[in-house]
Design goal:
With 128 residues, this protein is an alpha+beta fold. Helices cover 34% and strands 23% of the residues. Strand 3 and strand 4 form a beta hairpin.
Length: 128
Amino acid sequence: MTDAIPPAAPPDALTVALAAARAADAKQGRDITVLDVGEILSIVAYFVVLEAPNRRLVRTLVDEIENAVKADTGQTPVRTEGAREQQWVLLDYGDVVVHVFLDEIRRFYEIERLYRDAPTVAWETGAA
């Protein structure tokens, strides 16, 4: 009889959120904010919100976040929205939603204003 190896536990939501924030920071994402929205939205624990000055960097950031989160946690997005337009790309990791905005689109929607009661999570800039 062989011993079965139990499957690895999925990473916690904060680990995914921090991996996304750090990946965005490494590729010049701007104004990166991690919001703890779990008490406000029962279906999502964290939002990671960031911006880029142009569509090319939006695409680069999305690719980097996907690659880093997969490397760090094994997670891939359940769903991705807006990748074709590259103005507001949403990466849905289940308990974590990453919003990568073109800077003027972020200013227009002001998503943080909608969740102003959500605590902001501190994370280390420049950490890998």
